[in-house]
Design brief:
alpha/beta, Arginase, Chain A, binds manganese (II) ion
């Protein structure tokens, strides 16, 4: 720690950005969950954490909003490294199952597929239970947690822990191309496509504010229109308003006003324009620019609302380092704005 020089080349020590802190010392913990069993289109998000960490060593430790960023006591829970093999096995099974469905197969008529589905549901349940236990432990120690997926099913354990621990109701800000409001999807109990449906079932979740949504089914649209907890800023609406002269700053104010006092941020990287995440599981044209979201984070962190947790999910590396690079820079900014926000709420 005394020897740490933020201007030096980062040491590949396994921690995000090569920061010098241990989990015990940490005020912030990054908790990776390497699971992509339910991604329906393209696999790879289970390798997201490794790609993000690998890319993080090339970042300069400078942020325009915060001096001495490296003093943020942040550590990465490195136990995820051994999960990759287990996930590869589950992924193989889920691919055979998903392609069975895509060929029009009926699970009820096929004992083998029924068994695979049951196995996948049990195995993913175990991962979510573990996420819940570990994150709850960190929260009870007073640490702040940023979950790093994995597919978008991974924060459910985090939501459950918060639902149990938080005294007051909280809001979720979701940045995503998809609404993720399906009651169930492809037979999976915890699908990436159901994460926010599952979230609004929790009694402490008072509000779900969705941004960037542009790929959505009828059932979900109906829910966004009728569910009292849900407020959706569709991507096409935001863009139309901006084309007609409304500023992003104004829209950010409306987004912030729709949230309650305590805010959890769930950031599916596919909320960005896919040029930032070409290898993510389900890319969709449209979406946000990098600095549009950073500007929103800046405004939100200074707004008087309190951050109570965050996740970044669906980063998937391709054959180059681009997706990991964007993921690392996004996570870096989330960490900075989380910290700026928590300085205001000491
Ligand atoms: Mn999502």
């Amino acid at each position: 720690m005394e020897n740490f020089n933020p201007n030096d080349v980062a040491v590949r020590n396994g921690n995000f950005l090569g920061l010098p802190y241990t989990i015990d010392e940490a005020e912030y913990v990054i908790f990776p969950v390497c699971l992509d069993v339910t991604t329906s289109y393209k696999p790879g998000t289970s390798n997201g954490p490794k790609a993000v960490v690998d890319a993080s060593y090339q970042l300069d430790l400078f942020h325009p909003e915060l001096k001495e960023v490296w003093k943020i006591k942040l550590a990465l829970d490195q136990r995820y490294v051994k999960d990759t093999e287990e996930n590869a096995h589950l992924r193989e099974l889920s691919e055979s199952y998903i392609s069975f469905l895509e060929q029009g197969g009926e699970v009820d008529d096929n004992p083998e597929m029924k068994e695979i589905l049951q196995h996948l549901n049990e195995a993913t349940q175990k991962v979510h239970d573990r996420t819940y236990r570990e994150i709850k432990k960190y929260l009870q120690q007073g640490k702040k947690v940023i979950l790093l997926g994995g597919d978008h099913s991974t924060p459910i354990g985090y939501f459950n822990a918060l639902n149990e621990i938080r005294e007051k109701p909280f809001s979720i800000l979701q940045i995503d191309a998809h609404a993720d409001l399906r009651n169930a999807y492809e037979g999976f109990k915890h699908s990436h496509a159901s994460i926010c449906y599952n979230a609004i079932q929790l009694d402490k979740v008072e509000k779900l504010v969705q941004l960037g949504i542009r790929d959505i089914c009828e059932e979900e649209v109906t829910l966004t229109q009728n569910h009292p907890k849900v407020k959706t800023f569709f991507d096409w609406q935001i863009k139309e308003q901006m084309h007609e002269g409304k500023t992003w700053s104004k829209i950010c104010d409306e987004i912030i006003a729709a949230l309650g006092d305590e805010v959890y941020i769930t950031f599916d990287i596919d909320g960005f324009d896919p040029k930032y995440c070409p290898n993510t599981g389900t890319p969709v044209p449209g979406g946000f620019e990098f600095y549009e979201i950073m500007y929103l984070f800046k405004k939100l962190s200074a707004s008087g609302k309190k951050f109570i947790g965050m996740d970044l999910v669906e980063v998937a590396p391709g054959n180059d380092e681009w997706d990991g690079n964007v993921g690392a820079r996004t996570l870096f900014n989330m960490m900075v704005y989380y910290h700026l926000n928590s300085l205001k709420h000491k």
